[in-house]
Amino acid sequence: MSEAAVTVGGAGAYDAPDFVMGIDEIGSRAAAVVQNVETVIAGKRDAVTAALTVLLAEGHLLIEDVPGVGKTMLAKALARSVDCSVSRIQFTPDLLPSDVTGVSVFDQSSRRFEFKRGPVFANIVIGDEINRASPKTQSALLECMEERQVTADGTTYVLDLPFTVVATQNPVEMEGTYPLPEAQRDRFMARISMGYPSPADELAMLSTRETSSPLDRLATVVTLGELRAMIAAVQHVFTSQPVKEYAVELARATRDDRQLRLGASPRATLQLIRAAKAHAAMHGRDFVLPDDVDALAVPVLAHRLVPTSRAIGAHDRDSGPLIDAVVRRIVGETPVPVGSARRI
Amino acid sequence: MRPDLMPLSRAQRLALTATSFLFLVIATMALGPLIAGSGWWWLCAFIAAGTLFSGFGLRSIRTPPSLVPVLELVVLLLLLTLLFGGGTSVALIVPTAETFETFGELMAGAQRTIEQQSVPAIPVPPLTFALAVGIGLLAVVVDILVQTARMPALAAAPALVPILIPGFIIEAGAELPTLVLTAAAYLLLLRVDVRVRRRARLAAGEEGDQAATVIAPKRVPIVSTLGASLGLAAVGLLAASVLAASTPSVSTSLLLGSPSQGTLFARGVSPFIDLGRDLRRPEPLPAFHYLARDGDRPYFTLLTLDRFEGEVWSPTQTAVDGDNTVDQMPRPDGLSSAVETSQHPIDVVVDEVRTTWLPVPYPTARIEGLEGSWFWDDGALTVRSVDTNTGGQSYRVTRLDVEPTPQQLRNADRDLDDELASFLALPEEMPAIIAETAVALTASASPYDAAVAIQAYLRGAEFDYSTEAPVEDGYDGGGFDVIARFLETKAGYCVHFASTMAVLARESGIPSRISIGYTQGSPTDQRVDGVQRIEVDSHDLHAWPELYFEGVGWVPFEPTPGRGTVPGYSRPGAGEEGAPPLASAPPTGPGSTGRPDVDPDGGLAGQVADPVATATQLWIRSGVVALAVAVLLLLPALFRLSQRRARIRRIRRDERPADAAWDELAATALDLGAGGNGGETPREFAARLAEREAFDDARARAAIVRLRDAVERERYGPAGGGTAGAAASGSLVDDLATARAALLADAVGAERARALLMPHSLVDGVRRVLGGRARAGA
């Protein structure tokens, strides 16, 4: 039997959504989701919005932050708000690829191998501390992310849509970790960091969680069908030629920049536009603005770029991450397009 | 400040300042051929040094760059106060209101001195003041260009001003060595600047990684140079007009193509013709009055005409000699010690007459109490000013009373110096009647007797003092044709009598010239201690001949019947046995003043005493200069206005209307200094504007949001998604007007004025076009 001869599963293709959703409704639904998630994670609107944007744009999210700031909580709250399945994988050095994708076990009664689906078969997969797993296991997950399918014993299992991986990574250097190489970081649509909550938010959190987890009380505001309709609508958001050129120009600027050793890939440009479409839709617009691109430039581009050692040496660490500053500078310097009729 | 400028060390700034100074003072040397002496140059160098090096000092103590030019101007003001403020300043350098009045007078004096002086000009205080102001301003401009803007190449523009001025005024222009030196100084300045830049770049390079983080945005230097050049053109024109006003003679006339009528007598056009034009202006103007003892009733000479070229009488054009100050005037030409003379003081107070020629008796020993700079002319001893006029003057003339006897005149040596040949010159095409008359009158007599005979002939009963004569065209004047007709018709007024006698005298071998001035005037009842007040008005204007006798000098005659006083020595039979005593005869003719009842000579007032005409000329010329400057300054505003009109038309034509509206709003914001960089999206821009106070108003805020949404949809939305139609474009225009009004309301007056006159969006537009091309090529 040749590889991938059999294809199984795959619910929720976007080309035939259950119903069509208008662009205005996307905005209100998205706002409802963000508001809902915020009841659990206070004061992190940017992170919540970015996560929802990635979900709507069918991307994957990398959250890079210290432990205990609510990375998992964010993913779970998001999943619960949209009524989709969620699974969590704790990556450890001894985790095997099959622990992620699933394993074929021999069924005595039927006398055949039966595929036990791994945790990757969920709409939202939370990969905790992804950098602690071996590269082999990492790449198993990454294949799923890219292909949106799992192949085991010659059978290809298509994952249900939407499929979004929310991976977390601890930035603090530790022994026995395998930081994601540049090529693999590139597969994540966006990287965000949660950051510590403000003292007031932290205090509020203490009182709300005294007795039980607020996650239990979280209501569902969007059904899975509605989510699929939203994603389908996002795909039809209009992107004008100037905005596309703007995205290309931004990517090109990162490649030419003196402070960067590695610039943005064409995949980055593609994902920047996709994310910008989701961002536009969430703001109730059926076309993309340069502002949408600007807003997502740091989350979408920053983790793919590699600074030169000179730039790292010269960087003042107190002024925030170097790469974020570089991307903001490039965004600031790149002229905003003013429309096709005006281009020379 | 431009981000790619490296900070300069103190030594580098000093080097740039020193070379700027050198460049400027060498360029100033180009004015050398125009101005006498070198004192003015040292003063200019002092001013330039004070201004430039104060700038250096200010920069050394880290004064904000934008403030330095302002403080330099303050230093310039203090220096001017020190040098020109006189007693009006506090602690020598702090100007007071009076100081500014003094400055205003000096500038007015400078304006006059331009009109009155010829090359080389005497550096009278008003002229040096104007030079100092001009050089000081140029120094500030050069300093801005070299130090603040770091564009030393453009420093050539202000330095061109002193270099170009001589070219306007004298044919040869600036002298070659000066030009070569200036060019050398310019190259030195550029060289120093290049060295400084190279040093700064090397120094920056050594800092290694630090330098790598400083990333200058790619700029198109042409644009900033272009903008600077446009600004400089305006500054240059202003500076040129200041300096043109501070340099002598023809500059302003050349600039505007009209000779100054206010200084007619200085110009060499025959005064007669112009005098005749105004013959029918009957209103007398009080010219001046004087206090003198009995017997001191001289004629007052304004100017003397000695050149006769057949058609016109004109004065010999001579440059003012700066050594000829009026506190000590020379003994008149030809006067020997044998002739009895006495000195009599006369106090003159000028009332209405405004002229650069001072009414003084001939001859005069000295004059005291004058304001401004006055100088006497060789020979004629007429007195003129180079920087002021007779207005408001009050002075004491010490008149030299020459009392020759008829015998002295009759015995005068007939051998004349060659110098006097010009006073005998007569053109060849002389009408026969003149020669015939001369022969008939002076057949065998001595020069003196001939002169007396001519005067007696003209004063004879055959000749009438006539107001009819001047009516015909061409009869006003003293040319051959006029004289010939006068001798036939035997009617005319003082101009005809004087010129006829002068020509007949020359024909008879007596040197002659014509003086123009006032007769002795009318005495009043005011008399204190034997000193009588005598008033002279425009009806006393007069022309009379003066004849030269060796050993006595120039002697006046009075051929005009009914005017003035006939000198005793010139009466027929004077000095002979039984003749009347040699006192001046009482005035003849009607009235105690000898003034005829109908006095066409009063028309002389038209040119000499009409301050209005002079002022009008001045105003017209200042007006034209001001208009030219204003048009230049308004050009950007006009261009900007037409741009706005074009955009509003685009909105109405529905031709990317939101784009046009947004461009206009952005340009307005840019003009008001609220512009963003190219990396700002409409949304960010609108958000920034909305933070301004004026947009607290809900209407303005809503307008800007609508404009923003429209432009976003038009630029980035799907085609056909925009709201088209007349209603939409109408509301866009309204929204644009509302948002612009809010923006303008938010700005202070100075910002609005700057936005109107120097719209920054124009420069930015050029930059965007060039920048776009540069990117496309990259």
Automatic annotation (TrEMBL), chain A:
Q: Domain ChlI/MoxR AAA lid spans what residues?
A: 252-310
Q: Which UniProt keywords apply?
A: ATP-binding, Nucleotide-binding
Boundaries of every ATPase AAA-3 domain copy: 60-189
- Gene Ontology terms for molecular function: ATP binding; ATP hydrolysis activity
Entry annotated with the keyword Nucleotide-binding: yes
**Source organism's superkingdom?**
Bacteria
Instruction: Note the InterPro entries from the entry.
Output: ATPase_AAA-3, CbbQ/NirQ/NorQ/GpvN, ChlI/MoxR_AAA_lid, P-loop_NTPase
Family per record: Belongs to the MoxR family.
Protein name, per record:
MoxR family ATPase
- The protein's organism comes out as Agromyces bauzanensis
Automatic annotation (TrEMBL), chain B:
Keyword terms of this UniProt record: Membrane, Transmembrane, Transmembrane helix
Which lineage is the organism of this entry classified under, starting from the top rank?
Answer: Bacteria, Bacillati, Actinomycetota, Actinomycetes, Micrococcales
- Annotated ranges, domain Transglutaminase-like: 486-561
The protein depicted here goes by the name Transglutaminase
Against InterPro entries, the record matches this protein to: Bact_TGase-like, Papain-like_cys_pep_sf, TgpA_N, Transglutaminase-like
Q: Identify the domain of life.
A: Bacteria
Spans traversing the lipid bilayer: 40-58, 70-94, 127-146, 153-170, 176-192, 222-245, 618-639
The segments labelled Disordered in the record are 563-607
Q: Which Gene3D superfamilies match?
A: 3.10.620.30
